[in-house]
Design brief:
The complex is a heterodimer of chains A (339) and B (278). With 339 residues, chain A is an all-alpha fold. Helices cover 71% and strands 2% of the residues of chain A. The longest helix of chain A is centred in the middle third of the chain and has 34 residues, at 110-143. Classes of the chains: A mainly alpha (339), B mainly alpha (278).
Chain lengths: 339, 278
């Protein structure tokens, strides 16, 4: 038996084995699901250790440090916070100094609570807008002829490869006084007699909604397309054969089946949008209160590292549930990681 | 094209929404006057000013170097992480690793930036390294947040790929390292390339994390763009945007053509293999 036939043979029978968890082809194979690296201890250890320790060190440990600094006080020093542990060489005593001042400070000023709630609200509205604009686009691409799908998908992804900052900047011109969008909206609304004076759009929360929706739209479309494309079309055909009108078939079949995509896309938009800084800063103006801006101001303008850290920890607490939900969805989409 | 007029309209609206602002940006980069709302006449003066803006050019050069090195680092670590998630089966601490590798995908940048800065400051206090903030700290930060994206791309490619090819090679006596370099790597090469490009773009584009971890001597391109945009609109930024869009469009076009060719070759190979085998 040649090598290719052998490989093909194993490919044919091996997959069945992997699915049921048995190893029918050769007794020497590692248990199915363990993968080919399962047998090779030294190499396995290295491939495992390097990314693992990198993430532990550069991703997990920093959060512990943020928590530590959030529990200290600001002071005029380099770095500008009080040390948590102090070692006294004379008495050989380690004193631990924990201060909750920064956290309680978040409750003394309404600004912080308002900023958190406002961020969640703005992220929520933007997620809904992304869904409303993104769903028809994703559905249209999934319904298009196969030869059209790749180019259309490419068109959706392409803006994502250009600079995020520059795409936000584009809206300053469009939404500013005399900008194309603002002028059009004002002409239409004033022509209809709905408003007496021209609206200001730039530097209002509306501009932040538009900016976030615009920047995060591809993140909504891609997971939606992925679920809609896999959908079984015969279900819709059967529904139509049985006399179900298209809108009802959509509501009872397509929409429920695309829920995983809706969930994945919504989380991909909602979570980062909650902590967004650039868009509210450039488009939202001073009236748009968002926690990302507050954190930035505490850190760069007030130089209050402990309060900035406390703001970050609190933001993380708000996002723990959505992030865990996202990881659940992500894990399911990646097929549980089995080979 | 989909048949429903509603879907056609939805698709058109979505695409106009995505491309309208970019088109306007490009249009006003050729404006004669310093305005991005009123058209006066065609000129290339903003391109001239852009190429004489020394501060911006040196920032762009720094950003390109940071992005290149970060993307290379992220590809190595991200591929390992993807392999770990897709081919290692259960191992101790897998849940923690899965959490750490997917969290940076959605984690707000202000949190990542702040936490990495505090790590670097604490490290400097403890062991005296890294001394101050510089290009090095930006690169370390960028590798950390972009490797997650590489890992996702590589992992989904590996999951869709049947592990039995690798297992067959193992059964025929190939060592795991050889299996990886001879079988796995060539198959996941497209994923690695797109992972590299993704990491490069994300690094080149990052403002928030770089602002936290950069020092006085290391100002990246987005930081320059941001501070100039804060002061008001400038057609110079439009000119820069036009150049970026042009480069990206050419890059995607080339990638698309190469991909199309590779697919054709693969389809032909598969056909030949089937004919020979059957």
């Amino acid at each position: 038996m040649g090598l290719v036939e052998k490989a093909a043979d194993i490919a044919e029978h091996g997959t069945d084995g992997a699915r049921t968890g048995a190893a029918p082809v050769a007794a020497s194979r590692p248990p199915a699901g363990l993968g080919f690296l399962g047998r090779f201890r030294p190499g396995r250890g290295l491939v495992l250790a390097v990314p693992y320790f990198w993430l532990l060190f550069f991703f997990l440990v920093p959060f512990v440090i943020v928590l530590k600094i959030a529990l200290s006080e600001t002071t005029i020093a380099i770095p500008p916070y009080t040390p948590m542990f102090e070692w006294d060489p004379d008495t050989l005593q380690l004193s631990i100094d924990i201060k909750f001042g920064s956290f309680s400070y978040l409750f003394t000023d309404n600004l912080y609570i308002l900023a958190y709630l406002n961020s969640l609200w703005i992220a929520f509205i933007s997620t809904i807008l992304c869904l409303l604009i993104g769903y028809p686009v994703a559905y249209a691409i999934a319904k298009a002829e196969p030869s059209w799908r790749a180019p259309l998908l490419m068109l959706v992804i392409l803006p994502f490869w250009t600079s995020f900052l520059i795409r936000v900047y584009a809206w300053i011109g469009l939404l500013g006084n005399g900008g194309l969008v603002t002028e059009t909206v004002n002409t239409v609304l004033m022509g209809l007699g709905l408003i007496a004076e021209p609206l200001q759009i730039l530097y209002t929360p509306t501009a932040a909604y538009i900016g976030i929706t615009y920047s995060y739209l591809p993140f909504m479309i891609l997971p939606l397309y992925a679920t809609l494309e896999k959908m079984d079309n015969t279900l819709l055909e059967a529904a139509s054969d049985l006399g179900c009108p298209p809108w009802r078939a959509f509501l009872t079949i397509t929409l429920p089946l695309s829920l995983p995509g809706i969930l994945a896309g919504s989380l991909l938009v909602f979570i980062p949008a909650t902590g967004e800084f650039v868009i509210p800063e450039l488009l939202g103006g001073p009236d748009t209160l968002m926690i990302g801006k507050v954190l930035w101001a505490e850190f760069f303008n007030n130089r209050d590292w402990p309060v900035a850290s406390a703001v970050a920890i609190a933001l993380l607490l708000f996002l723990v549930v959505p992030i865990m939900l996202f990881q659940q969805v992500q894990g399911q989409q990646q097929g549980g990681g089995k080979g | 094209m989909p048949r429903s007029w509603f879907l056609r309209f939805g698709l058109l609206f979505g695409l106009v929404f995505l491309y309208g602002p970019i088109a306007m940006l490009i249009f006003f980069s050729f404006n004669d006057i310093r305005s991005v709302t009123v058209w006066s006449g065609f000129s290339l003066r903003w391109y001239g000013e852009l190429f004489n803006n020394q501060q911006l050019l040196s920032a762009a050069w720094l950003s390109l170097r940071v992005a290149f090195i970060s993307a290379c680092g992220a590809v190595v670590l991200g591929t390992m992480a993807g392999l770990l998630m897709a081919r290692f089966g259960p191992f101790r601490g897998r849940a923690l690793f899965a959490g750490m590798i997917s969290a940076p995908l959605v984690m707000p940048e202000v949190i990542l930036g702040l936490s990495l800065l505090l790590l670097f400051v604490s490290l400097e206090q403890l062991i005296g390294w890294p001394q101050g903030r510089s290009m090095t700290t930006i690169i370390l930060a960028h590798i950390t947040f972009t490797m997650a994206f590489v890992a996702v791309v590589v992992q989904s490619r590996l999951v869709s790929l049947d592990a039995s090819l690798e297992e067959a090679a193992m059964d025929l006596g190939a060592r795991p390292a050889k299996v990886f370099f001879v079988i796995t790597l060539p198959i996941i090469a497209p994923a690695i390339v797109s992972g590299w490009l993704l990491a490069f773009t994300l690094s080149l584009d990052d403002l928030v994390i770089a602002s936290f971890v950069s020092g006085p001597g290391s100002t990246t391109l987005p930081m320059i763009v941001f501070s100039s945009v804060r002061l008001g609109v400038s057609p110079q930024i439009n000119a820069l945007a036009t150049i970026v869009v042009l480069i990206v469009a050419i890059g995607i076009l080339i990638a698309g053509i190469l991909n199309h060719r590779a697919e054709k070759t693969r389809a032909r190979d598969e056909q030949m293999a089937q004919q020979n085998g059957g």
